[in-house]
Amino acid sequence: MGRSILTHFLNLSNTSPCSISSLHGCVGVTKFLSRPGAFPQKRRLRIGENFRCLCSVSISEPSTSETASSSVKKRIVSGVQPTGSIHLGNYLGAIKNWIDLQNAYETLFFIVDLHAVSSNITLPYDTQQLSKATRDTAALYLACGVDISKASVFVQSHVRAHVELMWLLSSGTPIGWLNRMIQFKEKSRKAGDSNVGVALLTYPVLMASDILLYQSDFVPVGEDQKQHLELTREIAEHFNYVYGGRKWKKLGGRGGAIFKVPEPLIPPTGARVMSLTDGLSKLIANKIKRCKTDSFPGLEFDNPERPECHNLLSIYQLVSGKTKQAVAEECEAMNWGAFKPILTDAIVDHLHPIQVSYAEITSDPNYLDDVLAKGASEAAVIADATLDNVYQAMGFLRRRGDHHMIE
Questions:
Q1: How far apart are CA 6 and CA 355, in angstroms?
Q2: d(CA 13, CA 89)
Q3: CB 3.0–4.6 Å: which of 4, 115, 308, 327 could bond 32 by disulfide?
Q4: How far apart are CA 55 and CA 98, in angstroms?
Q5: Contact present, 208 and 232 (Cβ < 8 Å)
Q6: Could you write out the DSSP letters of every residue in 236-247?
Q7: How high does pLDDT run on average in the chain?
Q8: Separation of CA 271 from chain center
């Protein structure tokens, strides 16, 4: 059982999510993390379940130029869907990078459990596992280094404003905008219309709600996720045009834009961790020892004819903490047989502290519940203010006492 950490961290998904939509979460990894002594057998790996990432961000530290000129930090939101098994690609591409982001931005990291329901197409989600997977995902956030003194950690369904805003945004989102989404077209064609739930079509509006609800300045996205963020931006701009400005002011609001139009936080070229078996597709692999390689001598970065080599060296750079130049010099004369055990050991060593921390966190369920309750309360302050502004701008009669307008 000691090899399970690699089982789940090295499993990579062959589908990519969209913006805030879905990271398949932590069911598998927690089976490992809850068991002591999980590292002795380092090189035997197994395949786990899928895990998809809403964001792919860079291995470089985030720029603080946006926050340097103001005492108010810019805001970022990101989330993980609590189903499946976490894998190395998503850890390196998302959660690990959050640790840097929380130091430079105001951050809200949540578990997108509502998307766990909406993303299932032909089969129902596991109702017995959803609650456990949600809790396990939150524990993994903390084990990986998310600091609750710097970031709010909460569950999406614990802040009811997500669903309310989704409905209001849906009223003004043309169905043609949703029909053009690539994921919907691909999945509906594959599954057949009779097997596709309405949520597959409308979940991008929920993603937009997840982002716009918190007046997000930036959203971490990968190259394949730009379409969904563009939809969010279009929805925000359309809503601001139809209901904002003087129209809103006449209804007693402050006027101007109701929503911030978020900007993408995109990694530089080569920063994303691609598939371990096919360097030209994202995050789909089984084992380091089976990953696709080539017959070129030595190992090198940035050779377009060797995407798999660049991918594995990038992973080694990330988990070892070494510079790109140091890795290049260390590995330039190596063959694959020598490199793969070194990479595996580096991954195991990097993930060991996460195991220790995870075991400590999950041993105290009350602590985790307190963290999630506190995070939901913090998030609701922002969310309720945004939602009240939307209701006001759309002309709804608000119940007495419902006044959280953002000034």
A1: 12
A2: 9
A3: 4
A4: 10
A5: yes
A6: HHHHHHHHSTHH
A7: 76
A8: 16
